[in-house]
# Entry
Amino acid sequence: MQLTDTQRTLLKAAAKHPQKKLVDFPENLKGGARMKVITAMINTQLIEPCTDEPNVYMATQTGMQAIGITTQPATPITTQATRTTREGTMQAVLIDLLKRPEGATLSQMTEATKWQVHTVRGAMAGALKKKLGLEITSEKHPGTDRIYRITTTTV
# Structure
């Protein structure tokens, strides 16, 4: 199940509460935006209304599993498990380059994919980081190009 950053933040805050209640909302999540997020989370069974308090919601087992927390020995459902990369795609080529111990420079990635620089950067930020949940680091040493690497242990 793919979670938004807001949903993940709310579920992690609920996981810290003894009764798994959503009580800590980000300061910028007010009014209609808050209700939209709550409605979406109820519809996907990540949260449910609290039976003893009106307008209070609790994280469900599904919600806890979505962030990798289980109370049973079952395999946790994570956002990364629902997304896979097909072999032979440009995204797979990009991942292979970034997985190398030496990493890859932007020029190496653009040469391998035949993409423009902004497309490579967009793919790293969107598809690799947000959708696949990969952690990408970069380092710059004087006199050399910036090196990008995937630091996530599972790809």
Summary: Helices lie at 5-16, 31-43, 61-66, 90-99, 106-113, 117-131. The two ends are 17 Å apart (CA to CA).
